[in-house]
Amino acid sequence: MRRASPALLVAALVSISAAAQEKLSPYIGQAPPERAPQVFRLQTHDGYFASDRIAISADGKELYYTEVTNTWSDYNIRYYTYSDRQWNGPFDLFSGFLGPALSVDGKTMFFEKYNDSRTCWQSNRIATGWSTPTLCTDVPNPKDKHYLQDTASGRIYASSRGALDGIGQMDISTCEKSPGEGVTHSLGRPLNSPGNEGDFYVARDEAFIVFGSPHRGGVGGGDLFISFRESDGSWSAPKNLGPTVNTPGFEFGPYVTYDKRYLFYSRSADFTRVDIYWIRFDSLLETLRGS
Known about the structure:
Layout: H1 6-23, E1 38-39, E2 48-56, E3 62-69, E4 75-83, E5 86-95, E6 98-102, E7 108-112, E8 120-126, E9 129-130, E10 134-135, E11 146-150, E12 156-160, E13 171-175, E14 184-186, E15 200-202, E16 208-213, E17 223-228, E18 239-240, E19 250-256, E20 262-268, E21 274-280, H2 282-290
Antiparallel strand pairs: 1-21, 2-3, 3-4, 4-5, 6-7, 7-8, 8-9, 8-10, 11-12, 12-13, 13-14, 15-16, 16-17, 17-18, 19-20, 20-21
């Protein structure tokens, strides 16, 4: 039997090591959580902390997030990129904006300003990175479009105070695309309530919505809930994500990864300090779906 030469063995080991390194690269190199939430560590400037929703590209090689001050008077969008088998960053992207979300095709980023009538802004991907922010163009009126997101079907979702047939302080709604005057339709009960359903994440296939609300009871001052889309297009009665996710404080800013494996969200006791957490979500998702 012929034995492999030392040079070939070294080359093979290098190749295996490189492949392993490539495979272990997601989520800026942090060890994934299981059933218990963990803080997702994101670097910020002095005097800031990471908060609100995050956004991750479909290939997992870009991660966008918000940093805010403890008075929420200043905030910025920052990001990491993965290349050459390593994570690079964070880099500053947009000053004065928060809450990034990527479109399904990855070509547009949606975000907003704090206390700006929940107005939606956007940036388009260009050869050099991202374009200068402009008001959202996918909907006729960018105002009152909190947490705007698109889906694989082309349907656009946002939370709105002035949605048609609205029933609460802020309703999760669907928005008609431009051109035209456009209408924002509340998704109604039982998804929405007379309270506030503001921060939310809708699955790209519209199978479920995870949202935060301070007005539906539960564990703390503001809990995360989930509603599933029924076969007739309606939405199920929301279910609390439970005490593993929710605390006596506030949970908000949900984001679920493309593979539905992890849930990211913000947690705070009193909003003077916020941390972003993540938890293994796929098994919890199926448990809640079947309960």
